[in-house]
Amino acid sequence: MEYALQHPEVRHLALPWRILDGSVCAVWPASVYRVLREANLVCRRKPQAMATGQAMDRIIHHYKHERLHSSLSFLRPVDFYRGKPEGLLAERVRKL
Q1: What are the C-alpha distances in Å from 33 to residues 45, 49, 66?
Q2: Nearest to 51 by CA among 40, 62, 59
Q3: By residue range, what is the domain housing residue 33?
Q4: pTM (2 decimals)?
Q5: What is the CA radius of gyration of the chain?
Q6: Does residue 58 belong to any structural domain of this protein?
Q7: CA-to-CA distance for 14 and 29, rounded, in angstroms?
Q8: Can you tell me the distance from the alpha carbon of 21 to that of 45, in angstroms, rounded to the nearest whole number?
Q9: Are 61 and 29 contained in the same domain?
Q10: Residue 60 shares a structural domain with residue 85
């Protein structure tokens, strides 16, 4: 477990092989996973996955709240489905 704490960048899948390569000891991957899980050291999501999720959230927000959709008479989905599209379209015609 000390090796896992000293090398937090190494995920549990690669950890047994790193321990073996470093001549620390010979262990089975399932044993390493069990010990790390019991010590609550197994990361559920990679930092990359979290960053990807945040990027997807930004894309979805842009798509729903900022982008004008041609199929919705060039209104944002949030305005079309939750607002009053007739009023917005009437205001647009009035401005033209």
Answers
A1: 15, 20, 44
A2: 59
A3: 2-38
A4: 0.45
A5: 26
A6: yes
A7: 9
A8: 25
A9: no
A10: yes
